[in-house]
């Protein structure tokens, strides 16, 4: 006999209310599970008693799957289940999670079927939940219910069969962004100070405040006093906080860097400071990043979170003012290096979505952003050592000393071992003496010069840049700077009446750049920013100059592709990189160049899952002594996809952009469906797999029962990519229709093939038959 259910006093019974009293099917979990708790007068929750199938599975006996609907409740009303949360979690994991990772995926060998009691029958009749997708969704929903303290729930079947495209997009919009939100203030410090990359013995929480912000420093000292359990140390940095010697001195006591704050009411008639919220990439990257933030902001804009994106620009303005650049990331060990620059496009994208009624405030905000970008342009990218005066092009070439401390413990072992052996000491001892300057190894200095440049490029790591990155004028960086020049010129002309005065004082870079204009210390003739009103003409001239130099040094008409240029060896590096298409995003390719890129070069990079980072031929053979690098073939990354989609659309190649977007979103959706909702950092686009073994593996995949964050720029790629798809393409992606099938023949045959493909490639019979394809 089934156990008696003891209901709490004043229980609300499902049978006593109309279905409309239940929350909306796809409401946020805080509403769906955080509102009224419904109970049933049922004899039992069916999940509390193992079915024959569960007993067979537990005994390792073969499970015979009954015909669908053979014992299920019939009816036209939306189906709901009565579920005991904790017991059902236990049963699902026990029966279906055969590899013990707290996820239900296609690699698990469970029976992939579970019976749930229906609400309208008071749990007496049951219905089979079948297949990886529905069962993993069940596990996710149960985890959310448990988050809200629910012991028993009435669960809509529609939450288990939800169109996967709609479900993933909804989770990104309503859940993932919230989980990735951080704030550096008294309320947010406890989360942001955690740094998985800190391998030192000194794990004490620490925040570094820039000089010139005494109010901010005092605020954090008060936080340290008011919250002694944090053990927070507050340090004020010197004015030149990016001096390499000073930065190296912080390696054994790393900390978070202060970011922009706003004054707010303290609730007691006074004011206090509040951190401006921002989005982090996720997983081990728990701080503000440079180019990640740009791509994240695109997804935020698609999802209507303009204020969040605007706040991230505020942080970049703050970083340029106090740290002299937009930093790689907001930790002390990143103070010497930047990342690919996107500030102008980021600011203009946001400006175009601001409330037009606030014209004066919007105008002032854009002025601050453009002024900061101009300072960054001159002080970082058009100054020595990043500028190559001979070509007039720019390079990733940051300052720095010693071994980058934020890498994995064994990352440089193969590099350091021969030197340690040479000196007859351990690798650890050699590392310490090398970092302290006791041991000098010029070859190793050269290696780490290029290694730091690779990290500044954002493409860490790739054989494209191996032992030469700091010498390369890359197509990606110079396309981005061309875009800066065009954006600044356009903003000055169209928004600031063709005259923009700069408030911060700094040196302007000589124009046109040439060797004669520089000596070892910098420009021979100095021009101060405050003494020169900026006009659009100079910036358009800078853009034309750069485009000519890109054509001269980086374009290869014979190969119909852009390549990097080695400024030391004075030759093109013929490594085929998908960043060649950044020239189309920036608009610096001619119509003829764009046509050649699309008609003759795009196939070099296009695979079933989208665009790979580089070609297999350029990467070369992989072996134990020459392992895979994560920014090489066969890996696909969100930035490369988005830049190509936008660039192709800009030049009128919308069909190609849609095809590539379809490929990438198909790969994402299949992973989401087959692997418990996973949204990783990157993919192997040839194998359509997130199981990546290059370097430190993959991020965003280590979660229990339900994904909480996804991964920053992958979330954005999905939201942005959906904007490129037609409704027909969106439905086909939701049905997990392979691109090879969808793009075979005309659209009508592809639609029919999608249905055939779904049935023929599901040998386990676990297809999502109940999917709503609205």
TrEMBL record:
Catalytic reaction list: alpha,alpha-trehalose + H2O = alpha-D-glucose + beta-D-glucose
Record EC number: 3.2.1.28
Residue stretches making up the Neutral trehalase Ca2+ binding domain: 90-118
GO cellular component terms attached to this protein's record: cytoplasm
Protein name: Trehalase
Entry superkingdom: Eukaryota
Keywords: Glycosidase, Hydrolase
Organism: Rhizoctonia solani
């Amino acid at each position: 006999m089934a156990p008696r259910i003891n209901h709490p006093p004043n229980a609300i019974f499902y049978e006593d209310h109309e279905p409309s009293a239940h929350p909306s099917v796809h409401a946020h979990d805080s509403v769906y599970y955080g509102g009224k708790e419904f109970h049933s007068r049922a004899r039992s929750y069916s999940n509390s008693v193992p079915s024959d199938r569960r007993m067979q599975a537990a005994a390792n006996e073969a499970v015979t799957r009954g015909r669908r609907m053979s014992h299920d409740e019939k009816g036209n009303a939306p189906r709901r289940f009565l579920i005991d949360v904790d017991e059902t979690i236990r049963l699902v994991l026990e029966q279906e999670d055969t590899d013990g990772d707290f996820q239900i995926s296609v690699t698990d060998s469970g029976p992939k079927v579970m019976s749930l009691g229906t609400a309208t029958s008071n749990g007496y009749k049951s219905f089979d939940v079948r297949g990886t997708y529905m069962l993993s969704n069940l596990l996710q929903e149960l985890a959310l219910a448990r988050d809200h303290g629910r012991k028993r729930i009435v669960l809509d079947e529609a939450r288990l069969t939800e169109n996967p495209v709609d479900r993933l997009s909804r989770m990104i919009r309503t859940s993932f962004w919230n989980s990735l939100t951080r704030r550096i203030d008294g309320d947010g410090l406890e989360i942001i100070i955690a740094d998985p990359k800190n391998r030192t013995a000194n794990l004490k929480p620490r925040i570094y405040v820039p000089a010139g912000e005494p109010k901010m420093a005092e605020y954090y000292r008060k936080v340290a006093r008011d919250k002694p359990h944090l053990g927070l140390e507050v340090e004020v940095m010197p004015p030149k906080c990016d001096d390499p010697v000073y930065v190296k001195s912080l390696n054994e006591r790393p900390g978070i860097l202060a970011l922009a704050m706003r004054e707010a009411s303290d609730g007691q008639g006074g004011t206090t400071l509040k951190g401006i919220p921002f989005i982090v990439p996720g997983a081990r990257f728990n701080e503000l990043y440079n180019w990640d933030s740009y791509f994240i902001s695109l997804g935020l804009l698609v999802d209507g979170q303009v204020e969040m994106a605007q706040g991230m620009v505020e942080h970049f303005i703050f970083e340029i003012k106090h740290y002299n650049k937009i930093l790689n990331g907001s930790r002390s060990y990143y103070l010497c290096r930047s990342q690919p620059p996107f500030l102008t496009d980021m600011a203009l994208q946001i400006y175009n979505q601001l409330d037009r009624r606030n014209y004066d405030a919007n105008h002032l905000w854009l002025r601050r952003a453009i002024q900061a970008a101009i300072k960054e342009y001159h002080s970082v990218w058009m100054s020595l050592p990043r500028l190559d005066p001979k070509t007039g092009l720019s390079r990733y070439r940051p300052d720095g000393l010693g071994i980058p401390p934020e890498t994995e413990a064994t990352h440089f072992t193969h590099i350091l071992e021969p030197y340690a052996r040479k000196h007859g000491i351990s690798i650890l001892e050699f590392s310490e003496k090398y970092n302290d300057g006791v041991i000098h190894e010029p070859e190793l200095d050269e290696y780490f010069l290029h290694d730091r440049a690779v990290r500044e490029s954002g493409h860490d790591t790739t054989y494209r840049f191996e032992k030469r990155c700091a010498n390369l004028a890359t197509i990606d960086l110079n396309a981005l700077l061309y875009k800066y020049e065009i954006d600044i010129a356009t903003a000055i002309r169209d928004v600031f009446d063709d005259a923009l005065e700069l408030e911060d004082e700094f040196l302007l870079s000589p124009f046109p750049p040439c060797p004669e204009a520089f000596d070892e210390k910098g420009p021979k003739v100095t021009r101060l920013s405050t003494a020169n009103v900026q006009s659009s003409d100079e910036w358009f001239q800078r853009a034309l100059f750069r485009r000519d130099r890109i054509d001269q040094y980086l374009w290869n008409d014979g190969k119909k592709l852009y390549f990097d240029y080695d400024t030391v060896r004075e030759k093109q590096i013929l490594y085929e990189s998908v960043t060649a298409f950044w020239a189309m995003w920036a608009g610096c390719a001619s119509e003829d160049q764009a046509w050649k890129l699309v008609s003759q070069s795009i196939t070099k990079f296009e695979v079933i899952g989208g665009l790979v980072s580089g070609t297999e031929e350029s990467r070369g053979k992989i072996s134990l002594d020459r392992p895979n690098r994560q920014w090489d073939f066969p890996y696909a990354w969100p930035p490369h996809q988005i830049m190509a989609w936008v660039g192709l659309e800009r030049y009128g190649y919308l069909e190609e952009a849609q095809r590539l977007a379809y490929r990438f979103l198909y790969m994402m959706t299949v992973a989401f469906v087959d692997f418990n909702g996973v949204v990783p950092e990157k993919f192997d686009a040839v194998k359509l797999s997130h199981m990546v073994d290059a370097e430190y593996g993959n991020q965003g995949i280590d979660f229990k029962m339900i994904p909480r964050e996804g991964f920053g720029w992958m979330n954005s790629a999905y939201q942005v990519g959906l904007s490129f798809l037609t409704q027909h393409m969106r439905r086909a992606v939701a049905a997990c229709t392979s691109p090879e099938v969808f793009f075979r023949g005309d659209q009508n045959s592809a639609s029919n093939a999608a249905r055939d493909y779904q049935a023929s490639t599901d040998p386990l019979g676990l297809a999502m038959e109940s999917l709503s394809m609205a």
